[in-house]
């Protein structure tokens, strides 16, 4: 079933690497050829001799803890670049690495692509004696001969490419290194090394010396450069980072002696343990060029790193056009002092701020000293309705104004009896008819005003779609009579911290009709359950706060209707959240700043407009303690 | 926070080998980097990748965009579309949070299914399992002329057809998927309603969208 042809054949690339390793290993093991002084040798032999000498000297000077980048044994500098056969090196030494480009030992990039070096390859330290080596030299000397002087630069004869043996896919005649320095591995073809892995294990004698990884790594010189370039970088993925946030990735697994060649502007720092860290990075997708030892072999590593933007940075804020028709300020704050202290704030959601569109929410507060009624109205214009910001304004202001007439007219004449009845009948009582009537009439007035407004604007009334939540209260014989009405989501609640009681004073309009928000329309109010059941009444000797809010507050702070009725959630909301930031007192000169700042709270996935109106009863206090209302 | 789960069902059968699977791989990169630029998607979208060839595997479990890393795709084997539907149904039932009185659950998952061939297993019984998992908007993509649009249109009412399964068309498809996710994540944020086919942006050239 598995399509075998799609599995890369590891042989091509593996053998090119292997062959090089074997050749180098073999040359090193043999050491310089006795008596070879460069005379009478072919250029290829001279080159080979040079490499033997180098490897041998390197072996001699090498100490186990040879630090990377420390002074290295005398090597023919820049020999790889000295490809001109008749160009003697400055030191009089013609230093030639056997040219693999001519031998074609540098595999075709296509082949490399298809065949990453297998990771399970034996390390260079385990390299066997190359089979081909015996034809040129004796057995591995246990004590290597003294280094000999390098052959003189006598290579006047044009070099010819050694024959290509035993190498599949190496017929690309020229494969210059990316930087044009033409760095080449020694001729691996000549070894003819395609050893049987079993042989390798049998023959291998562990030594302290490794293969290419220990060869100097001057950029563009030496076999190492070839190794780095010839193998495709091994792709690794770093754990995602967050922009402008300290980052630390654990050490890359499977590599040692990591080096970073290019951080690509990330500012990443490679720690001694191979970890990568940065104090702060810009969002983006990066590739980090590294190299490291893997199975004793230096390989290049391309690490992918995604630096994820902080959501807050993507939420830009564009002020809305305050000169356009139906413009609305992006935030609003108001406080009203009566027998209770009323505060409301409304802010534009991030989703609107990002597009420079208007706040759809609105609120209205009022206190009538004559009747003693406090009224708070909040409304949330439908996001999908083009003029809903005007709808919410009209609904709030109309309902608020209407109530200051309707409540004194309908409720006040019977207020005393009504409160007494409610107190006698206990909780779960029916809402008294005058209450229902006055609130419903206010809502109806607001709905009618929306229709009138739609006519004025020559748009369908649906363009003004808005929710509506009304909270009204007055003192009746030292008791508080608290009333509410709502259409659509959002919430009205009464929190009595002393009693630990949260009273839900709205009908959850979501839930049963999940996702289907209802709006203030005459039709909605005329529905069988559209009216009465939306009105709530409560009497209390005392309470902590009476609140009306849009879903921009209920969604992040209460999430569900059940939570909105949960006293524990209310306690948390009031004690640990809201009043931690805002002091609800008329003499708090900073209340505007405090409240608006609190309204900006961060809540993932919640970017709606937010409106919260809070009523807190004023403690009976001497009038002198009251400060004036803020501007 | 209500997540928007997104399941990508990608055909990695042998016929997708070479250019198509590479294009899909690149498409995933493009998709994820696009979504990371969008604040709605970045916050709400969660992504899972299920590949199917001879069998289906969830190679990336439902992961938030911030933590998502593009998986490596390998093309091989045949086209076990039924197993893919079965797998995504199981993933939805285990990974997607259902709504309860105390917790608002995740949004209905978006499912994008891409295939270039004919199913080689029993997909009809799996389709019922898939439907029972109550996925949200499901988009089937017929990648090239070899895909069976008749089968796909039984899976979903929304089928897009790529004229060819070449890299530019596949890339365009993933751009369109990015746009669809972006639009959907924004829609649910504003309208507080599950995404529907009506929220899909118009497809680019080379891709035709059929709604049944």
Description of the structure:
The complex is a heterodimer of chains A (631) and B (212). Chain A is 28% helix and 19% strand. Chain A has 631 residues and is α+β, with helices and mostly antiparallel strands. Chain A folds into 3 domains: 8-61 and 75-214, no CATH class; 234-314, Immunoglobulins (Immunoglobulin-like, Sandwich), CATH 2.60.40.10; 331-618, PPM-type phosphatase domain (Phosphatase 2c, domain 1, 4-Layer Sandwich). In chain A, the strands form 4 sheets. A 6-stranded antiparallel β-sheet of chain A has the order 9-10-19-18-15-16. In chain A, strands 1, 2, 4, 7 and 8 form a 5-stranded mixed β-sheet that branches. In chain A, α1 crosses α2. Chain B has 212 residues and is α/β, with parallel strands linked by helices. Chain B has a single domain (4-211), classed as 3-Layer(aba) Sandwich (Rossmann fold), CATH 3.40.50. Chain B has helices at 19-36, 39-44, 81-95, 123-132, 149-155, 167-191; strands at residues 4-11, 45-52, 56-64, 110-115, 138-143, 158-162, 207-211. In chain B, β5, α5 and β6 form a beta-alpha-beta unit. Chain B is globular, with a radius of gyration of 16 Å.
What layout of secondary structure does this protein have?
The complex is a heterodimer of chains A (631) and B (212).
Chain A: H1 11-30, H2 43-61, H3 100-103, H4 109-114, H5 197-203, H6 222-230, E1 234-237, E2 241-242, E3 247-249, E4 256-262, E5 269-270, E6 276-278, E7 284-294, E8 297-308, H7 311-314, E9 331-337, E10 340-347, H8 350-355, E11 361-368, E12 373-380, H9 388-411, H10 415-425, H11 433-457, E13 468-476, E14 479-487, E15 491-496, E16 501-504, H12 522-526, E17 535-540, E18 545-549, H13 551-557, H14 561-564, H15 567-581, H16 591-599, E19 610-617
Parallel strand pairs in A: 1-8, 2-8
Antiparallel strand pairs in A: 3-6, 4-7, 5-6, 7-8, 9-10, 10-19, 11-12, 12-13, 13-14, 14-17, 15-16, 15-18, 18-19
Chain B: E1 4-11, H1 19-36, H2 39-44, E2 45-52, E3 56-64, H3 81-95, E4 110-115, H4 123-132, E5 138-143, H5 149-155, E6 158-162, H6 167-191, E7 207-211
Parallel strand pairs in B: 1-2, 1-4, 4-5, 5-6
Antiparallel strand pairs in B: 2-3, 6-7
Helix pairs in contact in B: 1-6, 3-4
């Amino acid at each position: 079933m598995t399509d075998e042809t799609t599995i890369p054949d590891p042989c091509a690339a593996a053998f090119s690497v292997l062959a090089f390793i074997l050749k180098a290993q073999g040359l090193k093991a043999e050491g310089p050829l006795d008596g070879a002084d460069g005379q009478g040798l072919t250029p290829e032999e001279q080159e080979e001799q040079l490499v033997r000498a180098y490897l041998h000297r390197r072996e001699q000077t090498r100490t186990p803890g040879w630090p990377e980048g420390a002074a290295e044994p005398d090597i023919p500098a820049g020999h790889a670049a000295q490809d001109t056969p008749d160009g003697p090196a400055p030191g009089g030494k013609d230093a030639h690495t056997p040219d693999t480009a001519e031998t074609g030992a540098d595999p075709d990039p296509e082949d490399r692509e298809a065949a990453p070096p297998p990771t399970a390859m034996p390390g260079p330290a385990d390299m066997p004696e190359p089979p081909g080596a015996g034809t040129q030299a004796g057995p591995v000397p246990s004590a290597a001969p003294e280094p000999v002087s390098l052959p003189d630069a006598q290579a006047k004869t044009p070099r010819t490419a050694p024959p290509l043996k035993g190498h599949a896919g190496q017929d690309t005649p020229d494969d210059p290194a990316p930087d044009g320095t033409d760095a080449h591995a020694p001729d691996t073809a000549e070894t003819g090394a395609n050893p049987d892995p079993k042989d390798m294990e049998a023959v291998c004698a562990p030594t302290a010396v490794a293969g290419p990884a220990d060869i100097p790594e001057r950029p563009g010189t030496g076999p190492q450069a070839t190794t780095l370039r010839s193998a495709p970088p091994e792709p690794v993925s770093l754990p995602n980072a967050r922009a402008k946030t300290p980052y630390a990735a654990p050490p890359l697994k499977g590599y040692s002696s990591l080096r970073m060649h290019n951080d690509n502007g990330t500012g990443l720092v490679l720690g001694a343990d191979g970890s990568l860290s940065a104090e702060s990075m810009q969002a983006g997708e990066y590739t980090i060029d590294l190299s490291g030892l893997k199975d004793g072999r230096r390989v290049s590593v391309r690490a992918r790193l995604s630096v994820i933007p902080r959501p807050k940075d993507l939420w830009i804020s564009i002020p809305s056009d305050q000169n356009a028709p139906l413009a609305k300020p992006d935030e609003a704050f108001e406080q009203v002092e009566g027998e209770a202290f009323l505060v409301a704030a409304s802010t534009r959601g991030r989703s609107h701020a990002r597009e420079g569109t208007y706040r759809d929410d609105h609120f209205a507060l009022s206190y009538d000293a004559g009747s003693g009624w406090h009224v708070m109205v909040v409304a949330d214009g439908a996001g999908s309705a083009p003029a809903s910001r005007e709808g919410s304004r009209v609904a709030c202001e109309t309902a608020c104004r209407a109530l200051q007439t309707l409540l004194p007219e309908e409720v006040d004449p019977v207020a005393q009896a009504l409160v007494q009845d409610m107190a006698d009948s206990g909780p779960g009582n029916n809402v008294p008819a005058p209450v229902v009537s006055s609130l419903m009439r206010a809502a109806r007035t607001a709905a009618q005003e929306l229709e009138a407004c739609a006519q004025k604007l020559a748009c369908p009334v649906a363009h003004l779609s808005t929710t509506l939540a009304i909270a009204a209260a007055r003192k009746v014989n030292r008791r508080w009579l608290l009333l509410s009405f709502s259409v659509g989501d959002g919430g009205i609640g009464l929190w009595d911290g002393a009693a630990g009681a949260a009273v839900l004073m709205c009908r959850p309009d979501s839930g049963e009709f999940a996702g289907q928000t209802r709006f203030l329309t005459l039709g909605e109010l005329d529905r069988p359950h559209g009216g009465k059941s939306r009105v709530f009444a409560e009497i209390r000797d005392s309470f902590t706060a009476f609140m009306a809010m849009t879903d921009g507050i209920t969604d992040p702070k209460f999430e569900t209707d059940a939570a909105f009725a949960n006293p524990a959630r209310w306690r948390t909301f009031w004690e640990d959240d809201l009043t931690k930031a805002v002091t609800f007192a008329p003499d708090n000169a900073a209340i505007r700043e405090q409240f608006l700042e609190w309204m900006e709270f961060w809540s993932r996935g919640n970017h709606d407009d937010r409106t919260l109106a809070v009523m807190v009863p004023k403690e009976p206090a001497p009038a002198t303690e009251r400060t004036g209302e803020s501007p | 926070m209500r997540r928007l789960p997104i399941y990508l069902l990608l055909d990695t059968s042998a016929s997708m080998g070479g250019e198509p699977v590479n294009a899909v791989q690149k498409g995933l990169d493009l998709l994820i980097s696009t979504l990371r630029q969008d604040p709605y998607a970045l916050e709400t979208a969660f992504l899972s990748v299920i590949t199917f060839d001879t069998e289906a595997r969830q190679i990336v479990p439902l992961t938030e965009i911030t933590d998502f890393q593009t998986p490596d795709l390998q093309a091989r084997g045949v086209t076990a579309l039924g197993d893919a539907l079965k797998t995504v149904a199981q993933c939805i039932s285990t990974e997607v949070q259902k709504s309860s009185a105390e917790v608002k659950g995740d949004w209905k998952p978006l499912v994008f299914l891409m295939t270039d061939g004919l199913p080689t297993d029993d997909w009809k019984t799996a389709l019922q399992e898939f439907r029972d998992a109550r996925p949200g908007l499901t988009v089937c993509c017929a990648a090239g002329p070899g895909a069976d649009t008749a089968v796909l249109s039984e899976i979903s009412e929304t089928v897009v057809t790529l004229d060819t399964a070449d890299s530019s068309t596949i890339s365009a498809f993933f751009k369109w998927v990015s746009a669809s996710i972006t639009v959907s994540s924004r829609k649910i944020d504003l309208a507080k309603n599950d995404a529907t086919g009506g929220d899909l942006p118009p497809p680019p050239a080379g891709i035709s969208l059929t709604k049944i």
